[in-house]
Amino acid sequence: MKATIINHPLMSHKVAMLRDKNTNTKQFRELIEEITVLLTYEAFKDIPTVPVEVETPLERTVQQVIPDNSVAIVPILRAGLGMVNGVHTLFPTAKVGHVGMYRDETTCLPQEYYCKLPKDIGGMICIVLDPMLATGGSAIAAVDLLKKQGVSRIKCMHIIAAPEGIENLHRTHPDVQIYCATCDRELNKDKYILPGLGDAGDRLFGTK
Length: 208
Known about the structure:
- This protein is of the alpha/beta class.
- It has helices at residues 9-19, 25-43, 81-90, 137-148, 163-172, 200-205, and strands at residues 4-5, 50-55, 60-65, 71-77, 95-96, 98-103, 110-116, 125-129, 132-133, 153-161, 177-183, 186-187, 193-194.
- It is built from six helices and 13 strands.
- Helix 1 packs antiparallel against helix 2 and helix 2 (25-43) packs across helix 3.
- The longest helix has 19 residues, at 25-43.
- The protein starts with a strand and ends with a helix.
């Protein structure tokens, strides 16, 4: 499977609310975070753990824990910022890098304008965040950048995806795991996802 689509009634309910044009900025932001928590739970089912000894009130026992400094969050600016708190809910100590991309309105190709990553990111599991996976161009460019920094374990997390975006990302980076809340019908002639939810960045930050 090229992408893992989370088929769950809770996810479907929250995505429906997210799509609604009458959902206000506060509600939209909260829904983005809630959906991201659900996605994160699924995306990290295979995260490596190490054994530690824990003392309960009754005895000592061995449990599996996630090592410190093993996860890095990399939101694609600006809409990806809305998903960071959702991941931090489950991984509060995860470091955060930032990649700035904008889409050229003429070519629809991503243009990088900012990049700041943790120095030790090469040894971490990196999760790229962007609510919308349309053509896949921004996600592909972000993964390219991370691989140049020596990152070998990368996951991409999106809320709304187009089939074209999933196909392009998987074809270019077949080793990257893709997680989505839902896969929509198609892209329109302007490369916007249908039925989609409009511009995620504008709706997150009240600039629509």
